[in-house]
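Reviewer 2 asked us to include a model.

Predict the structure of this chain.
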Amino acid sequence: MKESIEIKNATVNNLKSISVSFPINTFTCVTGVSGGGKSSLVYDTIYAESQRNFLESMSGNMYGQKLMDKPAVESITNLRPALNVSQIYYNSNPRSTVGTVTDISYYLRTIFALVSNYEKHTKLTEQSFSPNNPTACCPYCRGLGEEYVISEDCVVPDVTKTLAKGAIKYYAGKETSLAYRTLEAVCNRYKIDINKKFSDLTEREKKILLYRTEDEIFDLKFKTPKGRYKHKEVHSKGAIIELQEQSLNLNQSSVFAAISKYLVKQPCLHCKGSKLNENALIPKVGGKNIFEVESLKIDDLQEWCKVARDHYNKSCLEKQINQLTIQICKKLEKLIQLKVGYLSLQRTIPSLSGGEVQRIRLATQLTCSLRGLLYILDEPCKGLHARDIEAIISATKQLVQEKNTVIAIEHNRQYISAAEKVIELGPVGGPKGGYIVSDDKPKKNLKYQVQFKRPQKFEKFLQFKGITYHNLRNQAVEFPINAITCITGVSGSGKSSLVDVISASLTSKKMYCCQKITGRDLIKHIERVNQKPIGKTSRSTVVSYLGIYDEIRNLFAATDYAMEHDLTASNFSMNVKGGRCEECQGTGYKKIELTYLPDSYIICPVCEGRRFKDTVLEVKYKGLTIDDVLDTAVSEIVDVFSDSLAIYEKLQCMIEIGLGYLKLGQMSMSLSGGEAQRIKLTKALGSNYSSRCLYILDEPTSGLSEKDIEKIEKILRKLKNRGNTILIIEHNPEFVMRNAEYLVDFGCFGGERGGQIIAQGSVEDVFKDKNSSWNYLL
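Predicted model (structure tokens):
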């Protein structure tokens, strides 16, 4: 009988005294509904106890026992050192790249140093080619490869507006404000009609307003934010010229905050994005400098390694070059195996999706020589097309073959069927969940049943032509209005780039990276849900993310008791002084910062978790205090706000999407991945748009079980029936077959080989196209 990690009577969060075992040196999947207890078991129990034991053994009990609480579990036996390869990897450092995370950049830079020292008799090290080294980096961008510039598109975001209505954002404001009065004075001096649309201005008029370099003086009378009128002598130049002068002091946080809305990043003009100075770019190996090599796609880098190896064959560098390129190629093979070969080593970690980051970290572990570890994977199939799942299964099994244990949280049934054991938690999410629904071997050879809906005829389309962006090259696409369209294709094929162009073009009312748009007038609003994680700090809560707290505060401030005691909406804010508890600054918790450990949180001893001062807690709206509203399940308070449509719509959507058990004051960091994904959907889908809204959703089924997905589908159909249009990036074949009325497919290739729309039309037509990403299912 196999040795197992034994969990006895775990009660962390919503777990109901569960006891379960995970066989050593095998692959176990944990699945179930969102909020059912998966993260509580895997992360908050198993991983947390492994961390605590590890630190306890290292630090003589100082950290392990005193600072890190033991999870609420009777016992865990045979536990192994755990490594968390999760989706949520909060590395926001722009200096961190695919090359540095995988260590491939280190090996490449070492090759360049060896070659330069051999051929040019220099004394360089690998640091001589690192943008993080002050002697090697570009002195202008300091090794970032990017710089901020003032964007005319940000200064004038909507050319259809008149000057008086704020076409030039820099001058937008009330008619009595200093900004508006400055614009008015310039227009009067140069005889420019302030009620003219920006698009109707002559080139001369645009140049005067934006690029005038002469410093002119105006005597203005304006109204301050405090309501007082003042006279002031104002020096004025063109809006963009003034902003460019201010941008010279961007290193001052106050300046950056003031003008950040006008800034865009672009490659550094001096180093052309290489991040390095001229000296670091001189040495070449295989005909390329270090920047050119790190800019190659991972798929193409193996060929360069072969060229470098052949070139220095039979030289005194032969042995060293061979050893280094072998190490590089081992890592490249794993990255290609895990379907991220379309990336370059230069890609920054913050620019990657959660799925890409996890696969890169997983590839790194596949070349690790450590054995006997417990690997915890969080939805390793996220962001992958169904045809690429086999590669992740193979990588998981390789970890097991190396004498490791793998526990994966996953919903993909193809991946689950490859596990040796499956534990399902549920049967529902929230307080009523946390039970073991099943604990058994998986059902093998699960195949998708291919069934097609009857094709529909559409009259109106939103069309884009000449799309050129990232790897998209002169593409044309159309989407039927008042329909559900799915956009599919393998990872890196161009799906996100396509919706970037659509979203940017419709939001800015300009053609963004495309040549022609037809049907723009058929769309009135846009709501987009991406894959970025929601706030993960103690200040970020469900209510703050949904954007309904201002409405709630206004309702409390309008009560008789609040007005009698001079309490305004700001007194009910958790973010400003006045009504909040200052001990915890309105969070209800005190953060304990721990050396070598993640931050810990305890209930505030002053307000006892209620966030506000007693005077504020005396105010009641329909019998509830502000703390009651924040600390009661949404399903129990939704009717209290039936008179406020903006609040009610969002809360009702939370209930329909299966999150009625959550509390509005719940910290975002306490949500599971599936709960966080549905909160994002609630924010967008709960918007009170009756028709003509375009909803763009990026993998809405991510992190969700089949039961949770069914709830999403009902809401999508309801929105469509109201007259809205829905675009969905999706990899789940069953979701696509059940819901898509129109399908746009990018095919089977990512990176440079991708970027082409292979087929578009009915689901059946696209599936039957021999070049589509779905044809293999037939």
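The first strand starts at residue 4 and ends at 10. Residues 38-59 form the longest helix (22 residues). We have added this to the supplementary material.
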